[in-house]
Amino acid sequence: MLLAAADTFRAAAREQLGVWADRNTVEIVSQEGGDPAAVSFDAVTAGKARGKDVVLVDTAGRLPTQLHLMEELKKIRRVVTKADATAPHEVLLVIDGNTGQNALAQVRAFDDALQLTGLIVTKLDGTAKGGVLAAIAQERPIPVYFIGVGEKLEDLETFNAREFAQALLT
């Protein structure tokens, strides 16, 4: 696996991704203040050259109301396709389980812009039960791949719809 730190403007985002890369002994491609699409292109090219099975491009937090950031995401998608004509193989959105109906608005916006292939729902370790997933499933039936129930690597769990539904009802 190879990580790409495509949030080139926030040093904290690059540093945090670097910490996760170190913890998991994963290589990372990063640059300060550069073009996020260029970092993404470099990472996909490097991943192919190094024989990596997975290149994960982390674009960090984006507000769908910030049109210039959404356009930047579309550019990243186009540039990644230039580096590998079959890419991207997955387009995942990580949503915060505490945001309620705002999560549905985010899914709509990011799906319209990028054609999402999956979701990861985090922060389901507290009071958030993730009930908004029912609304998301009805309006945008995008698969949920993982849920986060804590802050450790092992707290990222494969999503099981049956178990989730039973937990929601108890």
Features:
170 residues, alpha/beta, four-stranded mixed beta sheet, three-stranded parallel beta sheet, 6 helices, 18% strand
Concise overview:
This protein has 170 residues and is α/β, with parallel strands linked by helices. It has six helices and seven strands, in the order βαβαβαβαβαββα.
Structural summary, described in words:
With 170 residues, this protein is of the alpha/beta class. The protein is built from 6 helices and 7 strands. The chain has helices at residues 11-23, 36-49, 67-83, 101-114, 132-139, 161-169; strands spanning 2-5, 27-30, 55-58, 92-96, 118-122, 144-148, 156-158. Helix 2 runs parallel beside helix 3 (67-83) and helix 4 (101-114) packs parallel to helix 5. The model has no long low-confidence stretch (mean pLDDT 89).
